[in-house]
Amino acid sequence: MKKIIFTLFIVILMTINASAQYKPFQFGLKIEPGIGWAKLDSENPYNNKAKMNFNWGFVGNFYFVENYGMSTGFNIKFINCEYSFENAITRTIQNQYLEIPLGMTMRTEMINDIRIMGNVSYGMGFLLDVNEKNYNAVGEEIIMSTQYAKMRHALIVKLGVEYYVYKGSCLTAALVFNNNFVNIYKDNQQDVLLNNLCLEIGFMF
User: Fold this and answer.
1) How confident is the model at residue 178 (pLDDT cuts 50, 70, 90)?
2) Dihedral of the CA atoms 161, 97, 86, 45 (nearest 10)?
3) Mean pLDDT across the chain, nearest whole number?
4) Cα angle value 56/146/55 (rounded, 5°)
């Protein structure tokens, strides 16, 4: 009986020690400088101009085991772009979205103080603000009636590193591709997608 109790005690100690090697929960803040551009489903050739974006947000990671878990949070996204058809209308877009990502996070074992991490998520975005301007062929601003969808849907792919500065707290840096896959306009309008490529910089507590 004493041997059984001793064995159980050792197993419990090993489990506690293994659990202490990582945080099952991580929370943090991030900023995302980057660029945005439009992708059109159009038979006519068009010009596309990328624009600078700046996003920020909150991150929450929930690990099942040390290196695999779920991630969520929220992103405040400012997606800017410009596109035009030759000798026709030029449209600039500066839209703001509240995006809720939900996905899977994976990371390597520690390499000194660094882990390599990856994430694949679905991003559900809610339209917060629209800032659209349209110009004719001679550069005069014109008024157009454009109806935006209230939601934006995206596939988010992230690859980066975590640099641990104190126990479970780390600095993060990652390249993030946010790929919109559903038309941003309502039905019966030009099929347009707003994409985003960012450098994510954050701190996880």
Assistant:
1) very high
2) 60
3) 89
4) 5
CA 185/CA 193 separation, integer angstroms: 9
Instruction: Evaluate whether 171 touches 161 at the Cβ level (below 8 Å).
Output: no
CA dihedral 158, 95, 31, 34 (to 10 degrees): 60
CA dist., res. 70 & res. 23, Å (int): 13
Contacts with 97 (C-beta within 8 Å, 6 or more apart), sequence order: 75, 76, 77, 79, 125, 126, 127, 128, 152
- Rounded CA-CA distance 129/132 in Å is 10
Burial bucket for residue 9 (CB in 10 Å: 0-12, 13-18, 19+) = exposed
Torsion (CA) 38, 117, 201, 101 in degrees, nearest 10: 50
Is residue 31 within 8 Å of residue 56, measured between CB atoms? yes
**How does residue 39 score in pLDDT terms, banded at 50, 70 and 90?**
very high
- Quick: pLDDT tens for 91-133: 999 999 999 999 999 999 999 999 999 999 999 999 999 999 9
Buried b (16+ CB within 10 A) or exposed e, 171-184: ebebebebbbeebb
Strands 132-135 and 90-107, by their bridges, are antiparallel
How far apart (Å, rounded) are the C-alpha atoms in residues 64 and 199?
27
